[in-house]
Amino acid sequence: MKLYNLKNKNEIVSFLQAVQMGLGQNQGLFFPTNLPILKKENINNMIQMNFLDRSIKILSMLIGEEIPVEYLEIYVKKAFSFPGPKINPVTSNIACCELFHGPTLAFKDFGARFMAQIIEHLNKNNHTVTILTATSGDTGAAVAHAFYKSKNVRVIILYPKGKISKLQETLFCTLGENITTIAIDGSFDQCQKLVKQAFNDDRLKNKIGLNSANSINISRLLAQVCYFFESYSLITKKNYKNLIISVPCGNFGNLTAGLLAKSMGLPIKSFIAATNSNDTVPRFLKTGKWNPHNCISTISNAMDISRPNNWPRVEELFHRKKWNLNDLGFGSVSDEITCKNLLHLKKIGYISEPHAAIAYKLLNDQIRDDEFGLFLGTAHPAKFKNIIDKILNINIDLPKELYIPSKRPILSRMLKPNFKELKKILIL
Ligand SMILES: *Cc1c(COP(=O)(O)O)cnc(C)c1O
Question: How many A from CA of 302 to the centre of ligand 1?
Fold first, then answer.
């Protein structure tokens, strides 16, 4: 697989290089040179396959010979060793595609766990890698679990002290072993700034083999393509023709993966890019002006992003496929309307959470009678117990993935937002 840098098309790298580098020169994103296209009969055959076999096929088609198929097979089986997508009908023509049955109860498990396998592959010659990442919630948990006990990989996760929920904290700060968690006495932005400082320190970067494992990493996106195929295979045949998928968007990685699946020939009629009040993309699609506002805190906090870093990939894909951006559905939903839709979903028998409820609301508004719609369930409602219980007046049960760690001690160390102090930990 070859990829080019969107900011400098002459910078061409292999898949493994792109995974290791994350970003190219001038912070440019890598994008595949070739986009494979499947024939209709191949798609039909693939729909019949099981999730793992099909995912091996998709990923080997995308990645090519750089990773021998017999290895890829092992990696995919290890990465996706948890319950895949489930379709949960909500109305006669709308269903939730639940992607949250993995070890950290969010769709990020698919991407993070596949990436962990690729990093281990890169590490066969025993270089030590340090994964340094900042999290405001779900990424930290998915990355920590994906790399837990991985050989020669050290994971360091920074998060703003007291600014993530107790449940989110227990999910990644109770593991120990090769996972170090650091509660920064500051904001999420300050955590991100510390990560950037580390990546700008070339000597440090080479010395400890720094990698950020964040959502711009191409390995995460490719893994996510697989569950779009699986979701399609799980719906009934009569809905194949007019399928709409509504995606709750933050950094737009999930939507990029869905569009990649469509570009390969998966017959998805259209997508809806659903955001909360951080509506840079909906405003862009309406007015043609890219004008990010300051980030606003909402109850769908994993989508509190006003400069979505995968957006250039979405534009590139539309450009390459000669698709029209006007065909992309979109919308932004306030907290108030999100709550209303959570209550409405409860009334019709479905307990959801804020991110998915936003996707549901826009789908429900925009779907036509002859269409079938899926909205993506990106996280388990129990992850947001503190607010869901209040909004819906229920007492949601904790699944074992949350209950077990909630009984364990938090192992995090505290740190002021000071790069020198962080560096001391990094070079240990
Ligand atoms: C990360 C996340 C999102 C946003 O996904 P992107 O790929 O960044 O657009 C949406 N919902 C939940 C629950 C998340 O954790």
Answer: 5
Q: Which atom of ligand 1 is nearest to the CA of 248?
A: 10
Query: What pLDDT score does 84 carry?
Result: 96
Q: What is the mean pLDDT of residues 87-109?
A: 96
pTM of the full structure: 0.95
Q: What is the mean pLDDT of residues 98-114?
A: 97
Q: CA–CA separation, 120 vs 123, rounded Å? A: 5
Residue 90 Cβ contacting ligand 1 at under 6 Å: no
Token pair in block for residue 231: 């979701």
Name the pLDDT band for 64 (thresholds 50, 70, 90).
very high
Is residue 367 a contact partner of residue 94, using CB atoms and an 8 Å limit?
Answer: yes
80-104+218-397 topology per CATH: Rossmann fold (3.40.50)
- Binding site membership of 355 for ligand 1 (Cβ less than 6 Å): yes
Q: Is the pLDDT of residue 374 over 70?
A: yes
Q: Three-state SS for 98? A: strand
Q: Supply the pLDDT for residue 126.
A: 67
Q: In what order do the strands lie in the sheet with 2-5?
A: 8-14, 2-5, 30-32
Which atom of ligand 1 approaches the CA of 256 most closely? 7
What is residue 182's three-state secondary structure?
A: strand
CB 373 within 8 A of CB 246: yes
Q: Is 194 in the pocket of ligand 1 (CB under 6 A)?
A: no
Q: What is the rounded distance in angstroms from the CA atom of residue 141 to the CA atom of residue 191?
A: 16
Confidence of residue 30 (pLDDT cuts 50, 70, 90): very high
What SS3 state is found at 128? coil
Separation of alpha carbons 339 and 346, rounded Å: 11
Q: ∠ CA(343), CA(366), CA(256), 5° rounding?
A: 95
CB 412 within 8 A of CB 181: yes
The Cα–Cα gap between 337 and 171 comes to 29
The pLDDT value given to residue 189? 78
* Residue ranges of domains in the chain: 80-104+218-397
Find out whether the beta carbon of 352 lies less than 6 Å from any atom of ligand 1: no
pLDDT tens digits for range 189-202: 788 889 989 988 98
| Residue 325, both tokens | 């951006």
Task: Give 30's strand partners.
Answer: 5
